[in-house]
Please model this.
Amino acid sequence: LQAAIAEHHGVDPECVVESAGTSMANHLAMAAVIESGDEVLIEHPAYGPILDVAHYLEAKVKRFRRIEENGWAVDPAEVSRSVTPKTRLIVITNLHNPTSALTPDSVLREIGDIARTIGALVLVDEVYLNAVYEEMPRTSFHLGPEFVVTSSLTKVYGVSGLRCGWILARPELAWKMRRLDDLYSATPVYPAELLSVIAFQHLNLLRERARRTLEADRKLLRDFLEQQPALAAVPTDWGTTSFVRLCEGDADIFLERLQSEFETSAVPGRFFEMPDHFRIGMGVNTEMFSEGLNRLGRALASASVRKS
Model:
């Protein structure tokens, strides 16, 4: 499996650390780099478990903003203003979770330059990156030794049950992460590893299956949002998620009603520190996704009637 991951990314197998999904990969990567009291700079909005790990490791957490009006893009100037000589790690997701905003290599290089000047590393969670279909992006691990990358087969390839995740890091850091994983995981799940190796042999088929579904779902969502003045979102041509803002009202109350009265769920924005938003996930079969949007529309119409 280590060799299959290395071949997939075009890296030395000694740079690969296997893990039980991306969340464990992020945990191992951060635990190998951070000591209690170290400063960590994390994007906002952020995927909650990344913040949780940093706090669990007793890091001093600082933030840099990704702004909706700027398409949720990473602003290197904002990163530069936010780091200090004590910053040990800069953490971003690419594609951004929850918005699916893509950070191009040019911006990542700038972030790498910032990290290098202060002796920090850049952790990039790339679990959604291969949901960019026009031109398959290359992992940011190739941009320089300051980059540490995590990913898995879960989000884009749809084989979450295998719990196949990994880290890419320079060999001496990868070795440290493997030693940590020995404490957390002890014995690998060999049947899942064997199935993961088989999955790597068929990634193009899995990716094409996901692409067809996501492109159909994305078109449905774009058309739906154009007809819903109560909602706003930054559109993208990639990714499996969309981060939608409820323009008026309490999003948590709305989502509770959506679930209880219309049996439909979306991820509350408070999990990403944005309580007026919610995350819509794509990738289910188109008929089911269409029905979910239909129920969301009915819930919005019902909320509008109640307000009037």
